[in-house]
Amino acid sequence: MAYDEELAARVRDAVGERAAFTEQKMFGGVAFMVNTHMAVGIGRDELMVHVGTGGHEAALADGAQEMRMGERTMRGMVSLPPGVTSDDGALRAWVDRGVDLALATPPKTPKR
What is the count of structural domains for the chain? Predict the structure, then answer.
């Protein structure tokens, strides 16, 4: 198992209540795409949330951790350990941040 299937089911429900979405394998886990943008994802047992560069510092102040890919910090992406996302209310609040950003961003132009 590359990612937490139970967490994925909870995220699937939370995203589905807010917007149409697709799932895409990404980062050895799964990403939930809203309006052509990654809103949230799951890698191992951590929730990844796209908060944008403008929401990065606020997310860190609210308990998120910087998202890292190898040596690189992914500004605008944060991760949350299982302890934070075990509560349904907290999980939904973080999912809402990612979905809100994805819905507020114009869709990407399809590649040819």
Answer: 1
pLDDT in the model for residue 1: 54
Q: Please determine, for residue 45, whether its predicted confidence score (pLDDT) is greater than 90.
A: no
pTM of the model: 0.92
Inter-residue contact 46 to 27 (CB < 8 Å):
no
From the list 95, 55, 102, 58, the residue with the least C-alpha distance to 76 is 55
Instruction: Domain of residue 23: give its range.
Output: 5-86
Asked, for residue 39, whether it belongs to a domain, the answer is yes
Other beta carbons less than 10 A from residue 101's beta carbon: 22
What's phi and psi for 82, nearest 5 deg? Answer: -55, -35
Of 87, 95, 109, nearest in space to 21 by CA: 95
User: What pLDDT, in 10s, does the model give residues 61-97?
Assistant: 999 999 988 899 999 999 998 888 899 999 999 999 9
Tell me the C-alpha to C-alpha distance, in Å, between residue 22 and each of 9, 25, 53, 58, 61: 13, 10, 23, 27, 29
